Amino acid sequence: VIALGTLLGLLAALVPAIWATRSSLASLLSSTNVRGGGGHGRMRRGMVVVQVALSLVLLTAGGLVVRSFEHLLRAQPGFDPSGVLTFRVQLSPAFYPDEASATLMHDRLEQELLAIPGVEFVGAATALPLSANANQTGVRFPDSPANTGEEGHDVPLVDYIAMRDGYLETMRIRVLDGRSFEQWRRGGQRQVMIDRSLAERFYPSRSAVGATMMLDGDSTLVVGVVEHARLYDVHRDDRPQVYVPNEGDAGDATLSWVVRSDRPPESLVPDVRAAVRRADSRVAIADMKPMQDIVDDSLRQQ
């Protein structure tokens, strides 16, 4: 559509211009009385000049619109939506009364999804990019050199996302420093990953890896820094983000799953439904759609 509109705009501007250049000055003047001042000829020439000028203005404005739209489509949201199918699974407390049983079900479902031909990575989280669905909490970095003593600065409100192993790889969210979580079930100090904006704010001159962060009153260890994956607007960073493992006491029964494959995401739908049935036929699937569709929906209004 954009290409067709551009072509029509070019034709609308170039055809009158070409016609004007091919019309000789003599033919333009022959239709009027030169000795009488040539008012009609000047008016005709003036109309041609105005038409060409307005066409150039229209072309310039159209070019700016096309460039702006191209920039809109080239947004860098901090993740790669191509080739990813998403869906949500909620486990009923009647069948999964505790976090341990929910974790076992998630493990079983992950193995079924990884067994689908063409699937490369599988992950899950409590809030997907552009879902605007994360919980919020305040965090503190007691050893940060950037603390000011003012709570408004030192205790920022962050988006709190629990995720399973494989989520960052599936969404291609870059790990900028450090590493992802070790196996949560090995025990030890709670581990967190923070996004780029938190690291730059509280540790501007050194690595944030190894720092202590207070989360819900608990001391946690920062093991990695990740790129900010936009949760609300594909063109703008919002609240800082904190990631925790979705296992142990952080387990969540409702997760949004992401499956990356070398196949078109739509072709995975029947295989994914079958995998969920094999894991537990009582579990319902909701909101199944390609991640690219979610991004496109966020751009539709613009």
Describe what this molecule looks like in 3D.
The chain is α+β, with helices and mostly antiparallel strands. The chain contains nine helices and eleven strands. It has a six-stranded mixed β-barrel with strand order 3-4-9-6-8-7. Strands 2-10-1-11 form a four-stranded antiparallel sheet. The chain starts with a helix and ends with a helix. The mean pLDDT is 85.
List the defining traits of the structure above.
38% helix; 9 helices; flat; six-stranded mixed β-barrel; four-stranded antiparallel beta sheet; alpha+beta
Task: Set out the fold topology.
Blueprint (H helix, E strand, L loop, with lengths): L1 H21 L2 H6 L8 H35 L10 E7 L8 H16 L4 E7 L9 E6 L10 H4 L2 E7 L3 H5 L3 E4 L12 E5 H7 L9 E4 L2 E9 L14 E5 L8 E8 L7 H11 L5 E6 H10 L2
Parallel strand pairs: 4-9, 6-8
Antiparallel strand pairs: 1-10, 1-11, 2-10, 3-4, 3-7, 5-8, 6-9, 7-8
Helix pairs in contact: 1-3, 4-8
Strand order of the largest sheet: 3-4-9-6-8-7
Please report the number of helical segments: 9
End-to-end Cα distance, whole Å, is 16 Å
| Unreliable stretches covering 5 or more consecutive residues | none
What is the approximate shape? Answer: flat
Q: Assembly type of the shown chains?
A: single chain
Short description:
With 302 residues, the protein is of the alpha+beta class.
